[in-house]
Amino acid sequence: MQTTRSKELADEYLRLGGKRLAKIDDNIVKIRHWEDDTPEAEAFWQKNIEPLDERRRVEVETHLPTINDR
User: Fold this and answer.
1) d(CA 55, CA 4)
2) How far is CA 9 from the centre of its chain?
3) Which residues pair with residue 28 across a beta bridge?
């Protein structure tokens, strides 16, 4: 099974200890961040995900666990 670049970025962020959660409501994606990321995950987010244009960043965010998964 082939994965997309956005899925790969989300998986790597989570593997590094990322704690951000997606909130998806009526196709509007927002991120919730109650727990601190590991330093490695935060650095990865800042370097690889934050600089993406909004459309691509939302694609990554939709691969994160959602607040409903808690």
Assistant:
1) 14
2) 8
3) 25
